[in-house]
Amino acid sequence: MLMIFKFFRQSSKTHIFLLYSASVLLTVLLIGLFHQNFQKAALFTLLILLLVNGAGLLLLKYLARRDLLAQEKITESEKNFKEFAELFPQLVFELDLQGNLTFANRYAFTRTGYTQDDLTNGLTLGSLLHPNQHKKTRDDINRILRGNELSGEEHTIVHRDGSLIPVMIYATSILRDKKVIGIRGIALDISERKQAEQQLKESEERFRALYENAPLPYQSLDNKGCLIGVNTTWLTSTGYSREEVINRPFTDFLLPESQEQFHRIFPEVFAEQSSHTEVVPLLKKDGTTILASFTSQATYDSTGRFLQVHCLFLDITEQKKAEQALEKSYREWDQAMEFFEEAIYLVDLDDKVYKANSAFYRMTGLTPEQALGQDITEILHPEGELEPCPVCLARRERRDARIILEADHPDNPTSSPIEVTVKMIRSTTEDSLLGVLMMIRDLTQQRRNEIELRRHRDHLEDLIKERTMQLKTTYEQLMHAEKLSAVGRLSGSIAHEFNNPLQGIMSVLNRIQRTTILEPKNLEFVEMALTECNRIKNLIRDLQNFNRVSSDKIEEINFHSAIESILLMAKKELKTKGIQIIKEFDPMLPPVRTVADQLKQVILNLLNNAVDACDGEGTITIRTRFENPSTMALDLIDNGKGIKPEDMNHIFEPFFSTKPTVKGTGLGLPVSYGIIHRLGGEITVRSIENQGATFTVTLPVNRGKNNET
Hints:
Layout: H1 2-10, H2 13-33, H3 38-87, E1 91-95, E2 101-104, H4 106-112, H5 116-120, H6 125-128, H7 134-145, E3 150-158, E4 164-176, E5 179-189, H8 191-213, E6 218-221, E7 227-230, H9 232-238, H10 242-245, H11 256-271, E8 276-283, E9 289-300, E10 306-315, H12 317-339, E11 343-347, E12 353-356, H13 358-364, H14 368-371, H15 376-379, H16 390-396, E13 401-405, E14 418-426, E15 433-442, H17 444-515, H18 520-547, E16 555-557, H19 559-577, E17 579-584, E18 592-594, H20 596-614, E19 618-628, E20 631-638, H21 668-678, E21 682-687, E22 693-700
Parallel strand pairs: 17-19
Antiparallel strand pairs: 1-2, 1-5, 3-4, 4-5, 6-7, 6-10, 8-9, 9-10, 11-12, 11-15, 13-14, 14-15, 16-18, 19-20, 20-22, 21-22
């Protein structure tokens, strides 16, 4: 009985109705079974129907009361839920099986801009959500209706004004009598979170852009000193690709001598909480190096766990070069300043001395410690001046000036005449004044030099007058030499003209000698005439050879024959002047290889000088001899007036001559000197005034076998 009561308590009205129908069917069935005793069957059936109907009425009443109490509890529960939902600061909603909104709390209307009237007029979840999420919404609803819960799915609600509200939806099904009658859920407004995430994303993107495009190279290292991150500037500076450097030890990019320095410094970076700066050469991909100033700092999380070492480096290669160039410039400036004997000093715009050379310290008697930083007017400034100092005036007016102060000038700090230079130093990039360069130059030596210069100028004028006279004499000598040259060319031409009739005469004499029978006496005269004609012919040939331009051809000649040809040409002059020729020829002298016409010119020049030196009757001795097995010598000795001692050092100079202008050009001996030297020999002179002179010519006996000098 207790089990039957429990069954009915847990059964619905539908179950009771089915049970009641079953009892009626059972009654009818019993009547059919017991139709033979109809009265008994009818009475029994009536009794059963009464019992069943009574029990059914009681049960239906009980069930009705139970449903009423349950409905009241549901209504109370829904009332409590909705009251709570109205207070909840998030979007709370309920949907029916068709997706229509059946409930939304006050916050939902406030946040989305919709109203209760919109809900009453059939506001659906699909109209609230973004169109591109409709399919996802339908899938989520079907999942819930199949008994699954929706735990944190992101959706986007479209505000009434068109703006978007990102939400996180949590939802489950609404059951009634174990049947799904709808969906209940909460939509958490994640706008702030999304905004924060967007801001974080934008911040990360900005950081990444700043990180990648930062003007300074950046790298990060793990606790083993391996590279775990580098930015684009780092890669550009070193020439590597990212794949070539990530996870490689940083020491791979250092010179061997710098690797030990890194191993020593890297542990210190862990120990220090502040940044650490070090300068090391960094090896680029192309093998070159850059000088990098690294600033490093280790980072840790809130638990003290090591994260990484951040490193920024600055390429100071050019800066170092600039510093070295600047240092070199300073050294060169100091050396340049020390080079000058003048006092040089620099003052700033406040008239304070900030640089000076040693001459400045010697002049002032101060040391650098005493002078630098002092006002220049406290060091070099007259006391009790009556008028403004012109140097100070120029410095204060910021203008360049060059001021001369005599020794007795009241503003002169020295006892000597000086020149003070004031020069404004300006920036090369900006037209701004940096300081003032000043120099004090002692004019004492300059004044002495000016006096000496005037004296030399006067002396120079005298020299010019003297040289003018010498040039005039030289010009006259050149004119005379030109005349002699013209006469020489004319004599050569005349000799050529004489040669033609001479050949005719010789031809006639030869014909007479061959075809005519002459008496012995006449034949002797013809032969004598032919001999003289041959002598004239030889003289003409020698004259032509002498005036012909030298070919510089080296040939083998008989030295004595060359001398004889010259004597033959000069025979008439020697006889006229009564000069006796003494020949002392060495019979063992072999032929000499030389330039014949040039050697004859030398012999003729020396012979002419000897004739002029005798100036009337005298004796000229011509001697040939061996100087040594490979050298022969010619001595030409006269007993004339000799050479003055003061003229001995000048006789081989061009245009120097002791003869009158009409008799000498001053070129004979210089030309002879040059010829003999070109022929590989020497020419010297010995003389005693009024006792004659001896010219000695030495030549190699066998000068080269070639035909060129």
